[in-house]
Amino acid sequence: NPPLAMPRQGQQRGIKSFAAPTIDAATVEELTISKGKANVTLKREAGTWMVLPANKPADQDKVKRALEGLGKAEFGDLISESASRYAAYQVDEAQGTVVRIKGQGQIVQELTLGKRGNQGVVFVRPGSGDAIYAVKRIPLHEFKAEPGSWREKRLFVDAKPENVSQLRIALAGNTIVTPLARSRAAELGVELVRAG
User: What mean pLDDT is predicted for residues 141-160?
Assistant: First the structure.
């Protein structure tokens, strides 16, 4: 995996800007996202991202998109260096989304994501400092603090379609077994179909 350029330095108007360390996506071990009282931790275990504390598989593609999205972030102008402006830009404790990236046993990056501004920017406060920056190309929608938004939702992630011949569903003590014909699979929203 190529290193995550996290985030790139920008100077749109000669104003002080932020340059964070480059992070190698392959060395990222943990991603924690919190907003208010909601939080989720994603941890890489044996090469697979898991949602903690439930220890359920994460949507691997979503985690990859989130990390790649952070790598494409472009830090621009310094907006403010005053803690009194946190609430206005929603980078305060009550409104901001805190993203912590851990690698090799330590936090390598912490960002508080705030509200969207004009021209596609998101206001971001890096680390524990007071500075707030305008950041372009950051996928704010990917960073939800609810564990359910990160869980793998596909039922048959590892199943091979040619090996599926029936579908068994157990609901409240009743079991339904049905051959998985193409027409019925489409009705159920199932992509796996019986071979043949």
Answer: 82
